[in-house]
Amino acid sequence: MGAFGDRDADLVAADVEHYLSAQGEKGLLRFITCGSVDDGKSTLIGRLLYEAKVLFEDQLAALAADSRKAGTHGDGLDFALLLDGLTAEREQGITIDVAYRFFSTVKRKFIVADTPGHEQYTRNMVTGASTADAAVLLVDARKGVLTQTRRHAYLASLLGIRQIALVVNKMDLVEYSATVFSAIEDQFRAFARSIGLDHVSCIPVSALKGDNILSLSARMQWYHGPTVMGYLETVEVDDARLETAPFRLPVQWVNRPHADFRGFAGTVVSGVIRPGDRIRVQPSGRESRVARIVTYDGDLPRAVSGQSITLTLADEVDVSRGDVICAADAPAGVADQFEAAIVWMGDQPMLPGRPYWLKLGAKTVGATLGHPKYLVNVNTLEHLAARKLQLNEVGVVNVAVDRPIAFDPYTTNRDTGGFIVIDRFSNNTVGAGLLHFALRRSHNIHWQATDVDKPARSAQKGQKACVLWFTGLSGAGKSTIANLVERTLHGRGLHTYLLDGDNVRHGLSRDLGFTAEDRVENIRRVGEVARLMVDAGLIVLVSFISPFRAERRMARDFVEEGEFIEIFVDTPLAVAEERDPKGLYRKARRGELKNFTGIDSPYEPPEHAEIRIDTTVHAPEAAAELIIRALEQRGAVRPV
Amino acid sequence: MTLTHLERLEAEAIHIMREVVAEADKPVMLYSIGKDSSVMLHLAVKAFHPAKPPFPLLHVDTTWKFRQMYEFRDRMARELGLDLIVHVNPDGLKMNINPFVHGSTIHTDVMKTQALKQALDTHGFDVAFGGARRDEEKSRAKERVFSFRSRQHHWDPKNQRPELWRLYNGRKHQRETVRVFPLSNWTELDVWEYIHRERISVVPLYFARERPVVSRNGALIMVDDDRMPLEEGEVPMMRRVRFRTLGCYPLTAAIESEADTLTGIIEEMLRTRTSERQGRVIDHDETASMEKKKQEGYF
Question: Which pTM was predicted?
Answer without folding.
Answer: 0.78
